[in-house]
Specification:
Layout (H helix, E strand, L loop, with lengths): L1 H13 L3 H8 L15 H5 L4 H24 L4 H16 L12 H11 L1 H18 L2 H20 L3 H16 L1 H9 L11
Length: 197
């Protein structure tokens, strides 16, 4: 029962839409109405408001980290912690508060990874930052980081319940970026910093 409640609480925490909250705080339009239509930090950045985008990024990352850290502090085993990590991530992708139409999960996954293993989280975040800096494509950076995450996790820890969750997170991230993949291949993807049209 405690594990089931922790998983439910993690899902509900993951469902909190920081893109919507930050947009409302800064008096911006609903992020689902412009750019990619995605309620996430990169799309909020297209509003031109960097503070709102930063608030979204931090909020989405923190909810992933907090869910895992609380589960760790409560003394749950590795399997339960892995399930909590998965639940908070799924909550962001399919939030009950937004009719199950959420963000793509990059920031929340980063928070989860940093809490599960700070070195792993930093390695994956560093991969994202490097690719994003060179290419100026947030989606390409996310795709490469998502593909790299389970490889790095297995090299560091072997195959465990938590590395399996990292693999699931990576596959889900890639799946959520399917439209971005198509736009990248067509040369139509929007670069970081491009404002809404």
């Amino acid at each position: 029962m405690p594990t089931a409640l922790a998983i439910l609480a993690a899902y509900l925490l993951g469902s909190v839409p920081f893109a919507m909250i930050s947009s409302r705080v800064f008096g911006l339009a609903d992020p689902r109405t412009y750019g990619s239509g995605n309620p996430g930090a990169t799309n909020v950045l297209r509003s031109g408001n960097k503070k709102a985008a930063l608030m979204t990024l931090i909020g989405d990352a923190l909810k992933g980290a907090v869910a895992v850290i609380v589960a760790q502090q409560m003394g749950f085993g590795d399997t339960a912690i892995a399930l909590v990590a998965l639940a908070v991530f799924i909550g962001h992708l399919y939030p009950v508060f937004l009719k199950f139409k959420g963000g793509k999960g990059v920031a929340t996954a980063a928070g989860v990874l940093l809490a599960l293993d700070p070195i792993l989280g930093l390695a994956v975040a560093g991969t994202w930052l490097l690719v994003a800096y060179v290419s100026r494509y947030s989606s390409l950076a996310a795709l490469i980081a998502a593909a790299a995450a389970p490889v790095i996790a297995v090299l560091m820890h072997g195959v465990t319940n938590q590395t399996l969750v990292v693999g699931l997170l990576g596959m889900a991230l890639i799946g959520k970026h399917w439209q971005n993949i198509q736009r990248l291949m067509a040369g139509q993807e929007t670069k970081i910093g491009s404002k809404k049209k």
